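Page 47, continued from p. 46.
Same chain as before, 106 aa.
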Amino acid sequence: MQKVRINAAVDILALLSGIPIVISGLVLFYAWGTWPLDRGGLQGGRNPLYITEMFGLTHEQWVMIHDITSVIFILLVLIHLILHWRFMRNIAKHLRGTAKTECVEE
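Result:
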């Protein structure tokens, strides 16, 4: 039962960390038209319509949110893969139908 709770916590945290990744990615793409490395802006920053902030955060702050939550997400996915390693190691046998037991983790 303890393993189920750990799996659920890791999966929920990964899902929750994915939300700011998507939001910040959309803001970076649509507000600045960058993804996210081109920081020059239209006309090298001389464009009067160039946005300096979106929802009270600067471009650099949005990039930081995006980067930090992406690293957290990657770490949680790695933990998820480690927790399910036994299942993934044997999944080919289960798909071929040569496994002796069901494809369920204990």
